[in-house]
Structures are given as structure tokens and as C-alpha cells.
Design a protein that fits this description.
The chain is of the alpha+beta class and about 725 residues long. Helix content is about 40%, strand content about 20%. α5 (about 60-75) packs parallel to α11, α10 crosses α14 (about 225-250) and α15 packs across α16 (about 285-300). The protein is elongated, with a radius of gyration of 33 Å.
Length: about 725
């Protein structure tokens, strides 16, 4: 029961809930529901169908004005002119449709043109003249409001005596679709389009980026001025569209039309959870905030509350929302840090001894003490290494590059390709394309002509999980099956490369084994809920895949073909260290890297999740107990799960973090995540003509092009 409790920890659920962006407006949404239910109880028939239809018919204009305000705030500014723009658009639509008796389409176009014009004025002054948004839009508010009062007084008689006999006009104003008012349908359509625009369309994404940080957006190549200008133009058009709908519904214009709507819109944006600092929020939050303000005003009016009390209620709610927003932003990361890390129970048994006099196969020795260094000081973090049929050596670099060292002496270094991200595990397919797992990006390939291509960056999403795990967050190592399928590990779906050690701190099954089939182009998850799956290697017979669980110190075998297809078994358990990459050996066995060693303290901590929970809450992160990734070793094992030999570098003098090794023509090449060199160790008993490529794709004979190393090239 204790193990089950930690496996389905409520803390895990709460942490993933807090991580979701759609959870941020949860409090405003609950507040909206509470206000509505309170008025349903207090006001007779408030929840009736007729009352709900009336609420839906009266709500869209205020919601659109709130969305207009929200758009300007998301860009990092504010638009106090939305109420006046709304009122003037209402007048323009009425004048064109009723006085001049022009078609409804002309009235609609005229209203939108007015909003675009005022938005362009605001945007031009703010973006290009660099005026303050607050003062600029306040001045525009005063000027437009004054002009509106003049024209409404001048044309009051004309508007009062005019009448629109137009079915389209009536349909927009008082029509409905399947019982839903037309203006409400328009609001939903605009809200969906606005959400899509801000999250999926480049100009909209740029507006959000500018609101988050103008400096960062500018450095990213975004035209900040154009994005700001566009935001205010769209804000004006949204307010004008609201004015058009209001004109069709009310057929009148008064001097008090739109008065105070900018305050209500601002309150709606803030109450809905849109940050006044910009860049954080959405149209859905604006709609929730607008619904709260609308329901509050509507309900208090129906209860007969004095107008001043209604205004005071809105002000009080706005004050509370601003205070909550500030506190939430300030403390959310701290709360999430203490909640998100959710340790589980990992019960280790004592590992085999590695003492020199222990007599075990793991006994420490000096076999890696005098390994020949290659590329000393010319490489940073060669996590994996691989060689081609011409004996050239390839490895990954911390800066996102694939580096090639030319045979036979490996003195000449060249950047073979720049992928980006942090490349980790390497493999080579039948066409001699180099395949690389890239943390945060997925799986990429480099052709012999050095062109880079994407293999895959996503897989099937888990059906019953809050967190969207379709993206590959930490692709780690890979190998190619005889039919071309690429099997690779996605080590963690909760942590990226910067926090990968926290996955070991949890010990939870956050990873998965994934398969990409180049023939169909489809990528699918083969195994999930794995504890940091890391090294992947297809067996010599091509029937199964070996992969390691780094934090559980195990080697697994998963059958991908043959009579046992789909079966999973533990091949090696209770290793004395943390396993990393696996690769084939020339004698039909396999090489395994241990990137670090277990310690009794670590084993005890993994058996007590409550201890690790207290550690997260009470101790700074740089003092947490984490796996010791600083002492490496190389093991050899066979397909029966027997450890055959071990190779050590005492004191980790040459290779402190061994993450990979690759056998090639009688030598073992060694890489490490934190190393500045590649080690080369002669293997006296190995086949001097054996290469990894021939093991996978050869016909059993060694091609002539492989028997002789490529001639050395001179620099320049």
C-alpha cells in the first residue's frame, strides 16, 4: 500500500495541474460560477431559459470590448479608448444603416474602418512615436468621447425618426441560431479566431512575445513596432465590432453609451487573470473576467442595488484581483517547485562489491588508467561516439554540433554539421546517415553531404494524463533495427536536460521507449512509465532491443520480432552503478557504460520518499542529495545477462563520467558527458577487422574500402 500510495501520489497530480496554463484562470472561473449560483438563489427565475437567453444577448458587446482591452494589455500596453471607440462605432453603424439607408455590409465595414483608424492612431503614436500607452489612449478617449457627444446631439432627431427595414439588420440584432442569439454566436467565433491568432499565427505569437519582453523579442528578430501597431489596430476593430452589434440590437445612441466601459473592460481583463505586465493571458481569461463583471452588474441591478454600490463592488473586485495576481505570480514558482517534484519508493538491495579484493567481476582495476586520449581539449561533452566505414570518428559537442575527427590519427577536427540543442546518443543507418537524439528537439539526422534533416519530434500522447507528453522532451539514445525502424529512449516527460537529475531524485517512471518507422513516417510509444530509460541497442540477431533504466540500475530486453515479440524482461538487475549507453562488441556480446556509482546514502534516501519530500521543501536545491555522476566504468555482458568483465579508471582521472563506448577494429573508443577528450583503448582479443556498421548492415565480409584507413588530411 505504501508503494502504491507513492506511485499514484496526489502530489504528482497537483503538481501537473499547477503546471498547466489553463489552471491559472481556475480561480476566476470558480468565482464566475459562484456569482452566477448566488444570483440564481437570490433572484427568482434567474436560471430560466428565457433569462439565460437574455443574458447571452446582452453579454457579447461587453465581452468584445474586454477582449479589445485584453489584446492591448497582452502586447504590454493598455487601451483606455475602447469605450469611446465602441460608442462612436455604434453611432457610425446607426447613421449609415438608418439615416443614409445603406446596406448592412456597408455599415459593418464603416464601423470596422473607424476602429482600425483609431487603432492605427493609437498604435502609430505608441509604437513609432514612443508615447506612453496610458496617456495616449486616455487623450484619445477624451477626444473621441467629446466628438461622440457632439454628433449624437447634432443627429439625435435624425436617429430618432429613422427606421431600418432590413431583415439582415434584424437578424444580427435580435435573431438566433438554434436558440443561441446571433451576437453570442459572433462572440464565440471571434473568441476562437482570436485564440487561434495569438497562439498559432506568427503575428499573434509575436504580439505575445513583445508583451512578455520587448528586448527578448527584438533580439529574436521580431519587428516590435509593427507588432505593437497591429495590436492596437486589432483592439480598435474589436471594440468597433462590439459597437456594430450593439447598434443592431439597440437601434439607438445616447450620450451615456459606452461610458465607463473601459473601466469594466480593464476590470474584466485583470479579474480574468491577464497580467498587467503583458505577455501572460488569453482570450478565454478575458471572457471569464467579462462574464464576472457582467453577471455582477446585472445581478445587482436586478436586486435593486444603488449604482454607486455596484461601481464600488467592481472597484473592490478589481483591487482583490490585482492583489491576487501579484501574489500568484510571485509565489507560483515557489509553490510549484515544492509540489512538482514527487519522489516515489525505490527499494534497492545491496549492490555487488567493487572493492579490489572482493573477487567479483565488478572489482576495481586499472584497465582504463592509461587510455590514450584523442582530441584532448578539442571537444566539450562527447556524450556518444561513432565511427564510419572509413574510420573517421564522430562525436557530439555541447554547442549543438556533430564533430568529425579524420582518420587515421584524428588530429584534424572539423564541424561536420550544426544541429542545435544538445545532441546526445548517436547511431548510423544503412545509408550512412548519422542519427542523433537531441535533448528538447527530438531525433535528427545528418546525411553524408552534411545536410541536416528532422526524423521526428513527437510521439503518441498518453490518453489518461494531464500533461501533454506528445513532444519529445529528452530524447537520449537510439539504435536501428534490421528493417530500418529506429528505437530510441525519451528519458523523461517531466524534466528537460537542465533538470535531468531531478528525475533521478524522483525515481519515478517518467520515461518511455519510442519507435519511429521511416517507411510510414509514424512515431509511436512502445513502452511507457519507465524510470529514465537511457542506452538503447538492438541485439545482434535483430530480434530484441536492450535498454537500460539508469535510476533503477537495470538492463531490460524488449522483444521486437520473433516468437516472443512484445515481451519485456529484466536482463541484469542491481548493478553497482548507473548504466548509460549500450553498444555491440565484436564477439557477440555488448559493452555497457556506468556513468556513476551508487552509494549507501543514496540507496537509503530512495527507500524513503518522505525524506526526499522534506528535503525539497526545506533545503536549497544546490544542497539536495542527488545521484553521484562522477565515477565511470565500462562493463561487458552477454545475452544471458552475465557480466563478463569490467574496466575501471580509479579516481576518475581520465574519464570521470563515462556515458558511451564504441568498439571499432580492435579498439574501444570512450565518450563522456562532462569530458574534454575521447579515450581509445586497444582490445588485444577483439576482431581487428570488425566494425559496427558491418555488424548491422554488412554481408559478413569486410569491404576493401574499410580494410585500409583513409589517408590523413593536412589542415588547410
Amino acid at each position: 500500500m505504501r508503494r502504491l500510495w507513492y506511485r499514484i501520489s496526489p502530489q504528482l497530480l497537483i503538481g501537473e495541474l499547477l503546471e498547466k496554463r489553463w489552471m491559472e484562470p481556475a480561480v476566476p472561473f470558480l468565482l464566475m460560477c459562484a456569482i452566477f449560483l448566488a444570483f440564481v438563489v437570490a433572484i427568482p427565475d434567474y436560471g430560466s431559459i428565457q433569462q439565460l437567453q437574455q443574458l447571452m444577448r446582452s453579454f457579447p458587446e461587453q465581452a468584445l470590448v474586454a477582449m479589445a482591452m485584453a489584446l492591448s494589455i497582452l502586447s504590454g500596453g493598455i487601451d483606455l479608448s475602447v469605450g469611446a471607440v465602441f460608442a462612436m462605432a455604434n453611432f457610425i453603424a446607426l447613421y449609415l444603416a438608418m439615416v443614409l439607408e445603406l446596406p448592412v455590409s456597408v455599415a459593418f465595414a464603416g464601423a470596422l474602418a473607424w476602429g482600425a483608424l483609431i487603432g492605427a492612431a493609437n498604435g502609430g503614436l505608441i509604437a513609432y512615436a514612443k508615447t506612453r500607452p496610458f496617456l495616449t489612449t486616455m487623450v484619445v478617449l477624451i477626444v473621441v468621447r467629446a466628438f461622440y457627444e457632439l454628433v449624437t446631439v447634432a443627429y439625435a432627431t435624425d436617429l430618432a425618426s429613422a427606421y431600418v427595414d432590413n431583415a439582415a439588420w434584424d437578424f444580427v440584432g435580435i435573431g438566433d441560431l438554434l436558440g443561441v442569439p446571433v451576437n453570442m454566436v459572433c462572440l464565440l467565433a471571434v473568441a476562437f479566431a482570436a485564440h487561434f491568432f495569438l497562439t498559432r499565427v506568427k503575428p499573434g505569437v509575436h504580439i505575445m512575445a513583445v508583451g512578455s519582453s520587448r528586448k527578448a523579442a527584438r533580439h529574436a528578430g521580431i519587428n516590435v513596432r509593427l507588432s505593437l501597431f497591429l495590436a492596437y489596430v486589432l483592439s480598435g476593430m474589436l471594440a468597433s465590432f462590439a459597437g456594430f452589434l450593439y447598434a443592431a440590437r439597440q437601434n439607438s445612441a445616447g450620450t451615456d453609451t459606452g461610458v465607463g466601459w473601459e473601466v469594466n473592460a480593464l476590470a474584466a481583463a485583470v479579474v480574468g487573470g491577464i497580467s498587467l505586465a503583458g505577455g501572460r493571458g488569453s482570450t478565454s481569461r478575458a471572457l471569464i473576467g467579462a462574464a464576472i463583471i457582467f453577471l455582477l452588474i446585472n445581478g445587482l441591478v436586478q436586486l435593486g442595488t444603488h449604482g454607486s454600490l455596484t461601481t464600488a463592488s467592481i472597484g473592490f473586485l478589481l483591487l482583490l484581483a490585482v492583489g491576487f495576481n501579484v501574489k500568484f505570480v510571485k509565489h507560483k514558482s515557489k509553490i510549484l517547485q515544492k509540489i512538482y517534484v514527487s519522489p516515489t519508493l525505490v527499494d534497492f538491495t545491496p549492490p555487488p562489491s567493487i572493492a579490489r579484493d572482493s573477487g567479483t567481476v565488478f572489482a576495481e582495476n586499472d584497465r582504463l588508467l592509461d587510455v590514450e586520449p584523442i582530441a584532448l581539449g578539442k571537444i566539450e561533452g562527447p556524450e556518444d561516439v561513432i565511427l564510419d566505414r572509413n574510420d573517421n570518428l564522430y562525436t557530439v559537442n555541447r554547442n549543438g554540433s556533430i564533430i568529425r575527427f579524420l582518420a587515421p590519427d584524428y588530429e584534424i577536427r572539423e564541424e561536420f554539421a550544426r544541429i542545435g540543442g544538445r545532441p546526445l546518443g548517436l547511431a548510423m543507418d544503412k545509408d550512412e546517415n548519422i542519427l542523433a537524439c537531441v535533448a528538447g528537439m527530438g531525433v535528427y539526422g545528418v546525411r553524408p553531404d552534411r545536410s541536416v534533416f528532422k526524423v521526428t519530434d513527437e510521439t503518441t500522447r498518453s490518453r489518461f494524463r494531464l500533461k501533454d507528453d506528445s513532444r519529445l522532451l529528452l530524447a537520449d539514445d537510439l539504435d536501428v533495427a534490421p528493417d530500418g525502424r529506429i528505437f530510441f529512449s525519451d528519458a523523461s516527460t517531466r524534466y528537460d536536460l537542465a533538470d535531468w537529475a531531478l528525475d533521478g531524485f524522483e525515481g519515478r517512471g517518467n520515461g518511455r521507449l519510442v519507435c519511429h518507422d521511416p517507411r510510414s513516417g509514424k512515431t509511436s510509444t512502445v513502452l511507457k512509465n519507465l524510470a529514465f530509460p537511457n542506452g538503447v541497442c538492438v541485439a545482434h540477431d535483430g530480434q530484441s532491443v536492450y535498454w537500460v533504466s539508469t535510476w533503477l540500475c537495470r538492463i531490460y530486453r524488449y522483444w521486437i520480432d520473433g516468437p516472443r515479440k512484445g515481451a519485456l524482461e529484466v536482463l541484469v538487475d542491481n548493478l553497482p552503478g548507473f548504466p548509460d549507453n549500450i553498444n555491440r562488441a565484436s564477439d557477440g556480446t555488448y559493452w555497457l557504460a556506468l556513468v556513476g556509482l551508487r552509494s549507501p546514502v543514496y540507496d537509503l534516501a530512495m527507500a524513503d520518499p518522505s525524506f526526499r519530500v522534506r528535503m525539497v521543501k526545506q533545503i536549497p536545491p544546490d544542497e539536495w542529495l542527488c545521484p553521484g555522476i562522477n565515477y565511470g566504468c565500462v562493463l561487458k555482458f552477454n545475452d544471458k545477462g552475465e557480466i563478463l568483465e569490467s574496466l575501471w579508471d580509479p579516481g576518475a582521472t581520465n574519464h570521470p563520467t563515462i556515458t558511451s563506448m564504441r568498439e571499432h577494429k580492435g579498439y574501444l573508443y570512450i565518450g563522456g558527458l562532462e569530458n574534454n577528450r575521447i579515450g581509445r583503448l586497444p582490445l588485444p582479443d577483439a576482431d581487428p577487422g570488425w566494425t559496427s556498421w558491418d555488424s548491422y548492415y554488412g554481408d559478413g565480409t569486410t569491404p576493401a574500402a574499410v580494410t585500409a584507413p583513409a589517408p590523413a588530411r593536412k589542415a588547410g
